[in-house]
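Lab notebook: predicted structure, single chain.

Context: the supervisor wants predicted structures on file for every construct in the current expression panel, including those that have not yet been purified. This is the next one on the list. No modifications to the sequence; it matches the entry in the shared construct table.
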Amino acid sequence: MPTYVAAIDQGTTSTRFMIFDHAGRVVAVDQKEHQQIYPKPGWVEHDPIEIWGSAQAVIAGALAKSGIEAKDLAAVGITNQRETTVVWDKATGQPVYNAIVWQDTRTAELGNRLAKSGGQNRFRRKVGLPLATYFSGPKIRWILDNVPGARARAKKGELLFGNIDTWLIWNLTGGVHVTDVTNASRTMLMNLNTLDWDDEILEVMGIPRAMLPVIRASSEVYGTATGALNGVPVAGDLGDQQAALFGQTCFAPGEAKNTYGTGCFMLLNTGPTPRPSKNGLLTTLAYKIGNAPAVYALEGSIAITGALVQWLRDNLGLIEKSSDVEALAATVADNGGIYFVPAFSGLYAPYWKDDARGVIVGMTRYINKAHLARATLEATAYQTREVLDAMNKDSGVKLKALKVDGGMVHNETLMQFQADILGVPVIRPTVAETTSLGAAYAAGLAVGSWGKLDELRANWGKDKEWKPAMKPAQRAKLYAGWKKAVTRTFEWVE
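Prediction complete. Output recorded below exactly as produced.
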């Protein structure tokens, strides 16, 4: 039997291909960034052809580096930036428009129109999501309304929609048009109970069913790859945050993880029934393994965390590379009294305010660029605390520790401050690339590389733990300042 399992991890800023062994260890990796396209304020796009090209390049790169061949791979899984929307021509494979990225806010007006009857939570009972610019459904509608001829062609079945997972699987397999329950749950079009597209919502949104992919489990064989991975079963599909939950082996209700990437995403496994949120969280699918019942999660989504560090680097030129932010922040003892609330594309959980915009508050002549760097890191920790508070209220379970992963977990200053502001330990696993690992696990389970979830649990190991060291009074004072700062972002856009 082939020894390795692989994953394509298509993220917001880059694509990587990772190969894992049976113990869940990384054997090879290749990564490539892609262009961020900003046509207007609040608009964010990617070129789907460039993304597919990057995927092919990193597959070839990782195979070449490792000397592993396609025949050595038991399966490949896909994990992806969620909600990013592609519509393409079924016959030619050409996108009719750039991919509209999850952070894009152009659909705000459409959301407001839809909310006029039934409010922001009009579809929440069925789909677990508020009306917000974040989700795919309104983005599809925008393309159909704004690309000449698109609506008529979609009705005829000539155009296909997919989040990036669907786009990659379609290209990899030579035309299999599928998605999984986790990605479908981010469109605003899938009913959480039936796990199928909801005809009533499709009608309200004006989206033809003919363009939508078939919804499948997160772990099953969808088809066989062509090209460099020729003959390898494509057998796993999980949205990136669900993949990280799976890679962190949070298989029991009450287990949670937080991923620090472009944005920050905390997911809590809530078991086999969808749990509505009263505190601004999303009810979403965690995963579905083959014919087993679906597992649900509560999610707190934060739009801008790692992206804020990139902003310091690219827009302000305060640092040369993202990793420099920690050294700069460490030159000061605290934030000097400033807070940076990065509501660049509105506020996500737990507020859901499209009209908010970013602010830096508490500025005095004393403040220098190191305070700005520190406030940038702290913003991630404060936003995570807000989400954790909402999770504790919704679930009735107090989290005892937080498993963390993603690019920022190697930032010691941030991780210590995170433990301090949460008041619970923060734990980093030995394999921090849990998103790719989760997709590889889902694919491997589908083809029998692993037999059951307990085998995956046995692979999980702790690398480092940060314990809270801050006095409760100090924690309360700092957090109160943050809450006050957040209110200054509200209703900025008329």
